[in-house]
Give the backbone structure.
Amino acid sequence: MLGNIGPLEIIVVLIIALVVFGPKRLPELGRSLGKGIREFRGSVSGDHADDDDEPAGQRGIAAGDPGPVVDEKPEPVAHKRP
């Protein structure tokens, strides 16, 4: 069914998309579509190379980096009186 799609049909679809979404929004839609396809392929194949899933403090521990330095005692905050 989809085997008969030629270059003319692809051009027509791209022109319609340009008219509907506009030239400013079209690159953003392409990036989000590409990102979605990559995430789908990664989830289907079982690759979990996303760094977004790890907490920020856990990234550097495996590499020997202690991570961000945190003060144990917070600075006092001046409160305004009403």
User: Anything to note?
Assistant: Residues 26-45 form the longest helix (20 residues). The radius of gyration is 24 Å. Residues 73 and 79 are 18 Å apart (CA to CA). The chain is about 45% helix and 0% strand.
